[in-house]
Design goal:
Blueprint lengths: L1 H27 L8 H12 L4 H8 L3 H13 L3 E5 L7 E5 L1 H28 L4 H11 L2 H8 L3 E5 L5 H15 L4 H8 L1 H6 L4 E7 L4 E11 L2 E9 L8 H8 L1
Antiparallel strand pairs: 1-2, 3-4, 4-5, 5-6
Helix pairs in contact: 1-6, 2-4, 2-5, 3-4, 5-11
Length: 251
């Protein structure tokens, strides 16, 4: 009897959390569920870096064939790429492309805010009043204002010469964590103006009020009709606030 009551309470809590999550996503205008396997897999790669299909299957509690299918869909959308692990040539890893990093950076910010708000409300008011307080919190401070207050001291600025070292530092760090810095990467680091700006591309940086560069994004002009989003990086402690999306929108 006790087990049945516990299971019933757990199911009630789960149902209410799902209702609250759906309400959040509607208010945020996401048009998608943050709990969907596709979004969860993308967020796992955004937060944890490259991973094998086996590791993602275990982490997300999704079957191996399902992960393969989701990965194929994300690769078709050019959000994910697969490559051979440089430490173990027999193993292949999945990693986000620059477009994928841009796309999931915004969703990561929403997911983290959603989890934080749910946890805080559930702890503060308990299960019965969760939905009522959720609506009250949204009314008191719209979701857009929550994001704005979190990053109010960060501006998006066009590239300047004094940003060169930070541009290389931020991008070199994430490239070396997943891949290897190639000659073409180093050429861009050595002279961003000649390799990106002069051919018609753009570079934007996220800069704090104190002048610290905490994010970068570039648009490489390949020809008059085609350009590539590249060199997107956000410093770890500033991830989760949608800076990647702001940078992507700027370029």
């Amino acid at each position: 009897m006790v087990d049945q009551e516990t299971n019933s309470n757990h199911q009630t809590f789960t149902d209410r959390v799902q209702q609250a999550r759906a309400h959040y996503e509607q208010q945020a205008g996401l048009g998608k569920s943050l709990a969907s396997p596709r979004i969860r897999l993308g967020l796992a790669l955004y937060r944890g870096g490259p991973a094998s299909i086996v590791a993602l299957s275990e982490q997300l509690k999704i079957s191996h064939p399902a992960v393969v299918q989701i990965a194929r869909n994300l690769m078709a959308a050019e959000y994910v790429a697969d490559y051979r692990d440089r430490r173990d040539k027999r193993r292949r890893l999945l990693a986000l492309t620059n477009s994928g990093r841009y796309y999931f950076s915004g969703l990561s910010a929403h997911a983290e805010l959603e989890s934080e708000m749910l946890a805080n409300l559930a702890t503060a008011v308990g299960l019965p009043d969760l939905l009522a307080r959720w609506a009250q919190e949204i009314a008191m401070q719209p979701l857009s204002q929550r994001f704005e207050s979190a990053i109010s001291n960060i501006t998006i600025a066009s590239y300047r010469a004094e940003f060169k070292a930070s541009f290389e530092r931020l991008n070199r760090r994430w490239i070396e964590a997943s891949f290897e810095v190639e000659d073409r990467d180093q050429a861009v680091f050595d002279d961003p103006v000649a390799k990106i700006l002069t051919p018609g591309g753009t570079i934007f940086c996220a800069v704090t009020a104190g002048g610290q560069v905490v994010g970068t994004c570039a648009l490489l002009r390949q020809n008059p009709r085609r350009a590539e989003l590249a060199k997107m990086a956000v410093q770890e402690q500033f991830q989760g606030f949608g800076l990647g999306r702001r940078l992507g929108q700027a370029v």
